[in-house]
Each structure stands twice: as C-alpha cells, then as structure tokens.
Known about the structure:
Elements: E1 2-8, H1 14-31, E2 37-45, E3 48-56, E4 63-69, H2 72-96, E5 101-106, E6 130-136, H3 138-148, E7 152-157, E8 163-168, E9 174-177
Parallel strand pairs: 1-2, 6-7
Antiparallel strand pairs: 2-3, 3-4, 5-6, 7-8, 8-9
Helix pairs in contact: 1-2
Amino acid sequence: MQITITGKQINVGDSMQSYAEKNLTAVVEKYFDTALDATIVFSREGEQIKADVTVHPMTGALLKGSAQAGDAYLAFDRACDRIARQLRKYKNRLTDHQTQKVELVDMSVIEDDVEQEPTGTAPVIIAEMQTELPICSVCGAVMRMDLADLPALMFRNSAHGGLNMVYRRPDGNIGWVDPKDKS
C-alpha cells in the first residue's frame, strides 16, 4: 500500500511519518490483505492539529476519518480509530454478503436508437460498453453504493434474479426500484 503523508502549515518529521505508516498499515492489513493507497494530511487549525486520513482499501471504496487534538500523534490515533471502525463495519458487511456474484453485462447501444450528433441543448449520451453487474441483496447493493460513493447502482437481485436499482434521493434517503413484469 502506498501511503502519502503531507503537512499543511506544519512540518511532519521522520518520526511521525514512520509512526503513521506503521500504524495505518497495521490497521488496514487487519481487514484487507492489499489496500490500494492511503493519504494522511496534518494541518494546523488554531492551537489544534487536525489529522485527515483517507484510505482506498479496494476498487470503488474510499474511507475517510479525521480528528483534532493538541498533539499530532493523538489526532492521528483518533482518525486511525475511525478508519478502523469503518473498515471493520464494511469488512463484516462484505463477509456477510459473500453471495455477491458479478457477471459482465453487454451494455452496447444499438446505433439506430441513438442520435449521432447532439442537437441544441440536448445532453450528450455516452454509452458504457461493458460493466460489472453484481448479484446481491438490496442491503448488499446499498453497501456497495456507499462504498463506491455512487449516486445509483444497478444490480441483479439475488432473491428473484430480476434487475433492480438503488439510488440516493435528494433528501438523503435511499430509493429502490424493483420493476414488475406485465404478464
């Protein structure tokens, strides 16, 4: 895991860098074998020191934790504790939902249905050719959407095999679309 440590209006010494790398690596490796990267930013806010920790444990997931204290080590430890709680929560959700299978779905667009050139103020339509479509429960889909920080997620419902979608509503709640067949 690549860890980037920076300081804003504060000098981060070698001792603090090695302490932060060692502790954050231990926390992340407790829950995920290989994390992608992490960023730690120390900044001064008045007489307090703020530690912002961002961890990218897997593709589509970004966890953030921050804390303030009079000491940089204490601020980092508190932020790292928040990251550990988030990692534990999401790792438990992932292990509870191991029935999440992924299938590739061809999302090709038929050229007759799409205008070749946008006219006026119409938005440009961008087609994704292939995407992963997870097979999971509604709860698992909401967890995946939160982990990836997506506005919406389409998935195949493991309960009945149909296509469903969850999305974040403007009021902050989660919406669920479960279309019914007209038979």
